């Protein structure tokens, strides 16, 4: 398997964490896509993922899997022991809900702020910016920190593993919030404490 | 189980289709949330889903599952025979990818156009609109029809069921494109032909 990504960026890190949690880091070859130079928007890469985004998983037979959630489903089910996405109906549903909330309200919102209301990755990549929409998403990201917090349902799940997958997304979102001008999130004491706890996991420390 | 929704709207229809495909329609009680009147933004409903959106699944013990993908995971795994979301790693990954692409690039883009660049659900609900962002998403939705089309990988999957879950989202997206002023998508011959085929399924005809 190959992973096309760019180390240190939020979505690539989601998959690097998943790989480490599944013990699969050494089973993949990492291929660097020069995102700051816009390589992910060129025809050769668009043939792998028409959405023009990293990471992308390439299977041995050349099939490409894009979208972090899809790649995580693949990695998590390879050994038929899904520790990240859950096994039974209820657990799967709660993990998916938390994960989707964290992705939509926190990670995607923070990324929209970054790409629209800051210089983002530079004028050669940010060819369309809507500053007002970017600023609106700064508000959404800050509000999303509250919405993406696990409620009593998920917290009651077995061995605390159920919130795991959702946590990845909150973590990446919180890192992105810290990035550049987005300092509002950094003042939130509970988020910082949670982030410090999660950062102790080896999978996260090296992502 | 209860489903809080509003019949005929795109996201509620996704779950009504999933229920029908799983033979579970009569196992749930439907509770109408008066979305046109803004009931989904009131405190009583926000306690069920802080995102303020339908549909929401309420389990017997009062736990709420929001987000269509999470509800579908629940319904599909109740009998441990996931016919909508796939079983093995590769199938699950490809279905998730198609589904996420259709959701992000087509359904969400068309909905953003609807809520931002048209009167949407009316001024009492559309309290923030960014017309330029709405128009940009009209372009994204039309481009997304191409991106969300199943490629050679998924088409080669067994019994054609793999594209099923992704199809729901394309269908809802295409309905939304047809809705109101969004006529560009309606002129696409292949989409219309595909839509006519899918509309023959009983689950879709009654959603």
- Gap between N and C termini of chain A: 18 Å
Radius of gyration of chain A: 17 Å
Largest interface: A-B, 38 and 38 residues
Quaternary structure of the protein: homodimer
**Sheet/helix structural class of chain A:** alpha+beta
Biggest sheet overview of chain A: 4 strands, mixed
- SSE pattern of chain A: EHEHEEHHHHHHH
Query: Hey, roughly how much beta strand do the residues of chain A contain?
Result: 5-15%
Q: Major sheet of chain A: order of its strands? A: 2-1-3-4
Low-confidence stretches of chain A: 151-166, 179-183
The helix fraction of chain A, in percent, is 40-55%
Mean pLDDT of chain A: 84
What is the global morphology of chain A? globular
Number of strand elements of chain A? 4
Number of helices of chain A: 9
For the structure shown, list the relevant keywords.
homodimer; 207 residues; alpha+beta; four-stranded mixed sheet; 9 helices; 4 strands; 7% strand
Give a quick precis of the structure.
Two copies of one chain form a homodimer. Chain A is α+β, with helices and mostly antiparallel strands and 207 residues long.
Q: Which helices and strands occur, and which strands form pairs?
A:
Two copies of one chain form a homodimer.
Chain A: E1 2-5, H1 10-21, E2 29-32, H2 43-46, E3 56-58, E4 64-66, H3 68-77, H4 89-117, H5 131-147, H6 152-155, H7 164-178, H8 189-199, H9 202-205
Parallel strand pairs in A: 1-2
Antiparallel strand pairs in A: 1-3, 3-4
What would you note in describing this structure?
2 copies of one chain form a homodimer. Chain A is α+β, with helices and mostly antiparallel strands. Helix content of chain A is 51%, strand content 7%. Chain A has a 4-stranded mixed sheet, with helices on one face. In chain A, helix 1 links the parallel strand 1 and strand 2. In chain A, helix 4 packs antiparallel against helix 5. The longest helix of chain A has 29 residues. The interface between A and B is large, with 38 and 38 residues.
């Amino acid at each position: 398997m190959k992973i096309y990504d760019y180390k240190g960026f939020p979505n690539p890190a989601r998959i690097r964490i998943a790989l480490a949690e599944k013990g699969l880091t050494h089973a993949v070859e990492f291929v660097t896509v020069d995102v700051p130079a816009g390589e992910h928007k060129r025809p050769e890469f668009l043939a792998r993922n028409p959405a023009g985004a990293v990471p992308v998983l390439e299977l041995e037979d050349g099939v490409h899997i894009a979208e972090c959630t899809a790649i995580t489903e693949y990695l998590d089910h390879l050994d038929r022991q899904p520790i990240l996405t859950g096994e039974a109906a209820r657990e799967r549903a709660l993990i998916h809900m938390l994960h989707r909330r964290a992705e939509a309200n926190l990670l995607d919102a923070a990324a929209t702020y970054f790409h629209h209301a800051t210089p983002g990755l530079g004028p050669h990549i940010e060819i369309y910016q809507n500053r007002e929409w970017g600023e609106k998403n700064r508000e959404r990201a800050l509000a999303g920190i509250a919405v993406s917090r696990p409620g009593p349902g998920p917290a009651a799940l077995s061995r605390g593993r159920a919130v795991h997958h959702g946590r990845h997304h909150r973590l990446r979102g919180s890192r992105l919030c810290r990035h550049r001008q987005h300092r509002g999130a950094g003042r939130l004491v509970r988020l910082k404490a949670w982030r410090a706890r999660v950062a102790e996991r080896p999978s996260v420390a090296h992502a």
